[in-house]
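Known limitations

Files may contain more than one protein. Parsers should not assume a single record per file. Below, a two-record file is shown to illustrate correct handling: read the sequence, read the token line, then continue until end of file.
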Amino acid sequence: MHLVGRTLLASVLALSTFSAMAQPNETAIKQRLTAVGITPSSITASPVAGLNEVVTERGIIYVSDDGEYLLLGNLFKNTGAEPVNLTEQKMASLNKVKLASLAKDMIVYPAKDEKYVVTVFTDTSCGYCRKLHNEMKGYNDAGITVRYLAFPRGGERSKNFAEMSAIWGAEQRVIAMNEAKQGQFSAGDKALNKEMVLQQYELGLAMGVSGTPAIVLQDGTMIPGYQPPAQLLQLLKSRANAS
């Protein structure tokens, strides 16, 4: 991680030197990005002179004032004992807003004594997703409410896309999800909610989900991979104490 940070920092310094006297050209940046299939949703100045932060449908990239140079990766601020990941911080704030827009569509397993809430992008064909689901009581007993969003890893090409569409099309989604996680659910002739599943899948891509389960904390920070209940609880506690 530190090596990546140093490599990116060196690139940023070189770019900053190159374009320190230039002014951002938003039109040129949009044109150059569109030409390579990247659609920017916002372009703002980054903390580094000559470098602009561009939010896209697939995450954050950094672009020179004229759009000619691109940087892919995380931008770190190195002024303290430990470098601060500015890219991760910005993505977390964006993720929090995006998740709120789909809260009504989530399949929720509430903790009776709720202390924390996590959102999990899940795939019913994923082994570790099933492992997480089988330990749902452990999460809930620890005060962790778990909310599911769909992320069939191959999108519409996934073999279980119809199954996941049927889960989100069911009147009793929790029951349908429980059955699917046990391998006892079939889409059959059930109603499919393909649009909702695709919307959630696209959101996952925009947030940087590349595998499942992907756990998103309340502040929008993402933790890739399975976390057992005790380990996740400890992580949540440590983050709460640090804030």
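...continuing to the second record:
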Amino acid sequence: MPRSRHCCGVRASTRSRSERSRDRFGGVRKRKVTPKDVAVFSRQLATMMSSGVPLVQAFEIVGRGHENKGMQDLILSVKSDVEAGGALADGLRKHPAHFNELYVNLVTAGEASGILEAILHKLATYLEKIEALKSKIKSALFYPTAVIVVAFIITAILMIFVIPQFEQLFAGFGADLPPLTRLVITISQYFQEYWWLIFGALIGSVVGILKAKKRSVAVAHFFDRMLLKLPVLGGIIEKASIARFSRTLATMFAAGTPLVEAMSSVAGACGNIIFHDATLKMRDEISTGSQLQSAMRDTGIFPNMVVQMVAIGEESGALDAMLGKVADWYEQEVDDAVDALTSLLEPIIMAVLGVIIGGLVIAMYLPIFKMGQVV
């Protein structure tokens, strides 16, 4: 019998090692939990509940079947709280990094009113649309940023490694170099001597600006205001902020959240500090008895069409439906604007790259052409 127990222990240990290896390399991998994971979880949980599956069992099924080990651990952690008799909202509230105030408040309202299933469906739809909107904004920013970075790296390589070879060649010409060639060689010498300072200053500036934006309200105000004033891109960011404002408020209002209480969560979801502060100002006006339409008009940042749609929604008692239509409209506007921006940027970026690289090539070959003419 002892031998049998020992064998079982060896097998258990082997299984444990194989499971760990599978989790690490071939099976469920632990990755960072993303908003997309939360959206999928909300949709799956709502679908399970619609099928009549009890809440704890639904958590077990969704958790065990998730491909992300990090999300699996999160779901099972909330499940254990619910299984112990706690409210779902209380379990979610323990993980603020993944379930924000808006999510927890809506789940609380759903549990209190007995419509948790419907609330989860609304949350899933909301998260899916918000993530799609974020993806569009990121794609609009990523393409030009990536091209600029690549162009800078290529230019730096030419300045540090290629131009010096031409400089050595030109040293024995015994004639004055063209002004453009001298300028490029001078810049190249600075790159060779201070490349570490140039790269460090650029990277440090980007990191410093991002940190300052997070820590300083004044810096965040400045940059968000400047972003809204940018040509083309500023319009996209403004439309995206209005879409997120409308989508969030429509979701919370449809779930039965009082308007004043909803505004705090809406402010955090706008994605731009200018709209965030305007929403909090609207909340204060609404709490004193003002209508939503007049509070929006007083901020001066919402287009007249949005204010009029909200006014119609308030008068007809269908504010959530009107806000949903506004969100749909501006989400489509963002899609169209991003597509137009991409089409516009492609030829501009190619032209800029052609001028930079072509200018460097011409600058290096001008002395050769000049020597050929002399000969």
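Parsers that stop after the first record will miss the second one. For reference, the second record is described as follows. The chain is about 85% helix and 0% strand.
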